[in-house]
Amino acid sequence: MANQMGLHVGCLLLVVAVALLKGAAADNYTVGDDLGWTIPPAGSIAYKTWANKKSFQIGDTIVFNWTGNHNVGGVASKEEYDKCTDPGIVFGPGVRIEINSTDTLYFICTVGDHCERGQKVTITVGSAANNSSPPPPPPPPSYASSLTPTTLGSFFGLIISTLVAISFLDHS
Ligand SMILES: [Cu+2]
């Protein structure tokens, strides 16, 4: 029983360690955030801007949410993406796509002229313009500076001598 507990704790620690090594847990991204998946406002490059601000990683999930008459399908190439080629297979609202390779993913809506009007998005792993890591936080103020080695040493010395005194008292 105790061994099993130890094993479970060990597994848990391993999982945590792997998660830490991978940098972070997988993220969910809702395409367009609050805008959702729709025809972006005229003249905007809404989904390009949205995607450029994200740093997609393998294991992340892309979620397409919408109301009204839309769909989403993945096309195989940038050429098909640019031409808004109907991929044949499309999905309904709420579809979740897990990123499982570093290949660029191309998604369009095939309803009417929605794709031509900008309802399309590319997902590039490790994208993009905004991919630089945030600056490191400033070093914390040094509260330890007032604790000189000497004070620390005498502090621990005091504790140890107190413990020694107590153990002498115990044994007497
Ligand atoms: Cu649409």
Describe the structure.
This protein is α+β, with helices and mostly antiparallel strands and 172 residues long. The chain has helices at residues 2-21, 46-52, 78-83, 149-171; strands spanning 28-30, 61-63, 73-75, 96-98, 105-108, 120-123. The protein has a domain at 22-123: Sandwich (Immunoglobulin-like). The protein has four helices and six strands, in the order αβαββαβββα. The chain has a three-stranded mixed sheet, with no helix packed on it. Strands 3-5-6 form a three-stranded antiparallel sheet. Mean pLDDT is 76; it is low at 14-21, 129-136 and 143-152. Residues 70, 109, 111, 114, 119 line the site of copper (II) ion (CU).
List the quaternary state of the chains: single chain
Give the CATH class of the domain at 22-123. Answer: Mainly Beta
Low-confidence stretches: 14-21, 129-136, 143-152
What does the largest sheet look like? 3 strands, mixed
| Number of DSSP-assigned strands | 6
Q: Which structural class should the secondary elements be placed in?
A: alpha+beta
Quickly count the helices: 4
Order of neighbouring strands in the sheet with most strands: 1-2-4
CATH superfamily of the domain at 22-123: Cupredoxins -  blue copper proteins
SSE ordering: HEHEEHEEEH
Q: CA-to-CA gap between the ends?
A: 41 Å
Q: What CATH architecture of the domain at 22-123 do you see?
A: Sandwich
Give the integer mean of the pLDDT values: 76
Q: The CATH topology of the domain at 22-123 is what?
A: Immunoglobulin-like
Strand content: 5-15%
Fraction of residues in helices? 25-40%
Shape: elongated
User: What is the radius of gyration computed over CA atoms, rounded to a whole number of angstroms?
Assistant: 28 Å
